[in-house]
Amino acid sequence: MNSENDGDDGQVSRRSVIRAGAAAAAATAATGTAAAQEEGGDGEGSSSGEKIVKVGPNGQNIFDPAELYVTPGTTVRFVWEGSGHNVHATEVPGDAEWSAKTEITGPPMEYEYTFDGPMGEYNYVCDPHASVGMEGTIIVTDSPPENEGYQTLVPDSAKTLAVAAVGSMTSVLGIAYFFMKYGGDYDGEFEE
Q1: What pLDDT sits at residue 121?
Q2: Can you give the pTM of this predicted structure?
Q3: N or C: which terminus of the chain has fewer CB atoms within 10 Å of its end residue's CB?
Q4: 180 is in an annotated binding site
Q5: Known binder of ligand: residue 88?
Q6: 110: domain range?
Q7: CATH of the domain at 57
Q8: Residue 1 marked ligand-binding
Q9: Residue 151 lies in a domain
Q10: Among 72, 46, 187, 66, which Cα is nearest to 137's?
């Protein structure tokens, strides 16, 4: 048997098998890496305790996110992405000092406030667009939920099943290719 290439007699060399195994392992590793990357966040905010609320993104009359959970001491930065909006605090807990009422403006306006307490719900609106539902809430709490923001529509178990199905189909196709290419002739007599 020729160790460098496949022989003319239809036999498979050890190097071909090793190459095929390495390719299958690389494909499996790449699939796992892609699935792991889907689990990451959207990159907004930072580890220093700052959160971002977009004001009028994509020309819509909304705050994004409309509901935000923060711990005491977190700075929330409002970033204008659309024109003709403001942030006006309408209802705050007890003796809270947040009395925001920014001017009606557009980009590149930014406004930030550090929510030191007291804990509770801080409601705010955009005055020109409150009638169409442009309102938001910041909830200051010691234990915010783990999954704040948008929830994925596809559960993790379905993602895992899809990755497994794609891996299985790839394996079956690889084995089918291997047998079609290197299956050999069976015209001879078989030993029993």
Answers
A1: 92
A2: 0.52
A3: C
A4: no
A5: no
A6: 51-140
A7: 2.60.40.420
A8: no
A9: no
A10: 66
